[in-house]
Write a structure and sequence with these properties.
Blueprint lengths: L1 H14 L5 H7 L11 E2 L2 E2 L19 E4 L3 E6 L2 E8 L3 E4 L24 E3 L3 E6 L30 E3 L22 E6 L8 E2 L1 E5 L1 E2 L11 E5 L6 E6 L3 E2 L10 E6 L2 E4 L10 H28 L9 H6 L5 H4 L7 H7 L8 E5 L2 E7 L5 E8 L3 H15 L9 E6 L4 E7 L6 H6 L10 H20 L16 E3 L5 E3 L6 E2 L6 E2 L8 H18 L6 H10 L18 H20 L7 H17 L15 H7 L10
Antiparallel strand pairs: 1-2, 3-4, 4-5, 5-6, 6-12, 7-12, 8-9, 8-10, 10-11, 13-15, 14-15, 16-17, 17-18, 19-20, 20-21, 21-23, 22-23, 24-25, 26-27
Helix pairs in contact: 1-3, 9-10, 9-13, 10-12, 12-13
Length: about 650
């Protein structure tokens, strides 16, 4: 009997339906070849693009031409653009008429701005040359790896501008709009969401006019709006499905995990094995495997059982979830994370807060990671959490911790894996705990406060739908890199509803959450100022400020009385901002964008070496109206 079980297990693993290498390569970017199986050189052309007029599509605007069976061209008007790569929402093209790579091109070299089917994608990052006005240059581009013409890193750009910034360039504008800043030339890269690696060329977003979209989407697909094509839409497969989403294309195939691997379409519904065939084969081969079976049985009895190991049945139960969408880079196994964190022992725990526990770990390749555990109650929760992870993984910001991937444990436990930088957490440095025991001077603390506010404001005001943290009461969620730059992690992927006791993923659905973020940020500012954290901190801090004794709550390691006057003024200003966050953050009278603007202003003055209170800081620590507000009883403060 034991032999039969062993043989059944062996044959089951060998005969499990899987995906051929060729099909996996086709499915890898979720770009299936169109129904005519069009090819040109190494390109497999996805829907709605096509070579032949007889191939069904949604418009002739997506017709391409193949030169010498090797080079693919997109034609818009009288211009031809060499195709470099396809994306699910766009196409990467070279400059028209360009036969060789040029480090910089004339601003009029790419004069296409957009039409009913194509628009310049906001995923492009622009390198600008010899600009007379540098006010358009953005420092955030420094985090991107933008290769030169030789394919190697192009080094640090003198001036770069991500089109996603939208402060200078707007959808529908051409590149010539940069000429008003006196720029003489430019280069372009696309930086796909979820990465920081640029690819030379110009990405064009594609879409179809909304008034022609009726009935074009397949079942299990939704109509989504284009970003840069006015009144344009595309079809997008729902969670749990992959494909182009169009009825005339590949449609939407069911996506699942079977035996720890991705499977698609009918493979998700196919039976795992044929019991009758296995019994017949096993009965023939049983004598051969009896000795081996006994030997393995003894080994299994001696092998310790590891609780919480990845359960294939549970993985199959959750197989309708499209894990690759959320885990853009890597789907970790439970065993990897269990070994990396030493079985999630308490000594590896970084924080145990409202947003879940986070453990530090080291992977087999030496990479340092932080693992956030999120306990969902049902599959609906799990799908919603994965949608938030997908949103976060698409956001690129220098102060956001890089999301490496995720893991589904047995049951509904989800683990989110972040890159864990060299200097640990802010909490460790403020409280001199753990291995990180470096003191933080005021300049570092001010910079960290400004960076944290900036990334929160970016997530709340620049990302759609907005993302809120909902857990800043703990500075353990703020990681610090080698330069003590902030890397924010540990978002509230799942929060509890007091209405019916069920868990709801309302991280960005409820408009009041951002006001709680502002209140929590006020607590964080007090922790940065005082270097400590305790339950009645707001009451004590406001009482001290009310009586003019701020120095009594300032961290002794800052030596408040020995600081120059402008440094003491800065501490007072930050205390003022913290006070307003506590007083007004709960009812929305102050937003994170206001807080970020003021802190960035103060931090800039700190670099300049002085404190000049500008218009953004008219309400300062010494303002009598503010003192009047502080005079309110601490019990009246709104605590979410």
């Amino acid at each position: 009997m034991l032999a039969l079980l062993l043989i059944s297990f062996t044959l089951l693993s060998l005969n499990q339906p899987g995906i051929s290498l060729q099909r996996r390569q086709q499915m890898q970017p979720f770009l299936l070849t169109n129904q005519c199986n069009d090819k040109c050189g190494s390109f497999r052309i996805p829907f709605p693009f096509h070579l032949n007029a007889s191939c069904a599509s949604v418009s002739n605007a997506f017709r391409l031409s193949c030169l010498n069976s090797t080079t693919l061209y997109l034609h818009i008007g009288i211009k031809s653009y060499r195709v470099l790569e396809f994306f699910s929402d766009g196409i990467l093209v070279d400059f028209p008429g360009s036969s060789t790579c040029r480090q910089y091109n004339d601003l009029n070299a790419f004069d296409f701005a957009g039409n009913n089917y194509f628009g310049i994608s906001a995923d492009n990052v622009i390198g600008l040359y010899d600009c007379e006005d540098s006010s358009l240059c953005k420092t955030g581009c420094e985090t991107n790896d933008l290769p030169g013409c030789d394919g190697n890193s192009g080094g640090s750009l003198a001036c770069c501008y991500p089109l996603s910034d939208h402060s200078i360039w707007h959808s529908g504008d051409g590149f010539s709009s940069f000429s008003k800043f006196g720029c003489r030339g430019f280069s372009s890269w696309v930086v796909p969401r979820g990465t920081n690696i640029g690819k030379r060329g110009v990405k064009l977003e594609w879409a179809i006019p909304r008034n022609t979209s009726e009935g074009v989407c397949a079942s299990n697909a939704d109509v989504v709006n284009a970003t840069t094509v006015e009144a344009g839409v595309r079809c997008s497969c729902q969670d749990g499905f992959v494909g182009d989403g169009f009825a005339n294309g590949a449609g939407c195939l069911k996506s699942c995990i079977k035996e720890g691997q991705e499977a698609y379409g009918e493979e998700c519904d196919s039976p795992r094995h044929s019991p009758r065939k296995l019994v017949i084969v096993a009965s023939v081969l049983a004598p051969v495997f009896i000795l081996a079976s006994l030997f393995l049985f003894l080994c299994i009895l001696k092998r310790p059982f590891k609780s919480g190991a990845f359960d294939l049945d549970q993985a199959h139960y959750h197989s309708t979830i499209s894990f690759r969408k959320a885990c853009r880079t890597r789907l970790f196994s439970y065993r990897e994370l269990d070994e990396a964190t030493r079985a999630f022992e308490d000594g590896q725990k970084l924080v145990d807060g409202t947003n879940g526990t986070i453990h530090a770990g080291v992977l087999g390749d030496g990479s340092h990671i932080a693992v956030q555990k999120v306990q969902c109650e049902n599959e609906r929760d799990l799908i919603h959490v994965l949608s938030i992870i997908e949103l976060l993984s698409a956001v690129l910001h220098r102060n956001l911790a890089r999301l490496l991937g995720c893991c589904i444990d047995s049951g509904y436990t989800l683990m989110v894996v972040y890159e864990y930088p060299a200097n640990g957490t802010l909490e460790e440095h403020l409280h001199n705990s753990g291995e990180q025991k470096f003191g933080l001077d005021w300049y570092k603390r001010l910079s960290m406060a400004a960076e944290t506010a900036s990334v929160l404001a970016y997530l709340q005001y620049e990302i759609s739908p907005p993302v809120f943290h909902h857990g800043l009461k703990s500075s353990g969620y703020i990681f610090l890199d080698v330069d003590f730059s902030v890397k924010l992690a540990g978002f509230a992927l799942l929060s509890s509803s007091s209405g019916d006791g069920s868990n709801l993923c309302n991280n960005y659905e409820s408009p009041h959450i951002h006001r709680n973020d502002v209140y929590d940020f006020g607590l964080l500012l007090l922790e940065i100022i005082s270097g400590s954290k305790y339950s009645d901190m707001p009451s004590v801090a406001l009482q001290k400020i009310k009586s003019g004794k701020l120095e009594e709550i300032v961290d002794p390691s800052l030596y408040y009385h020995e600081q120059p006057i402008f440094r003491r003024e800065q501490i007072e200003i930050v205390a003022d901002i913290a006070t307003r966050c506590l007083l007004f953050g709960g009812d929305g009278k102050i937003g994170m964008i206001d807080v970020a603007r003021e802190l960035v202003h103060v931090a800039k003055e700190s670099i300049d070496g002085g404190s000049k209170r500008g218009p953004a800081l008219e309400e300062t620590f010494s303002n009598s109206s503010l003192l009047q507000m502080i005079s309110m009883s601490p019990d009246s403060i709104h605590v979410p």
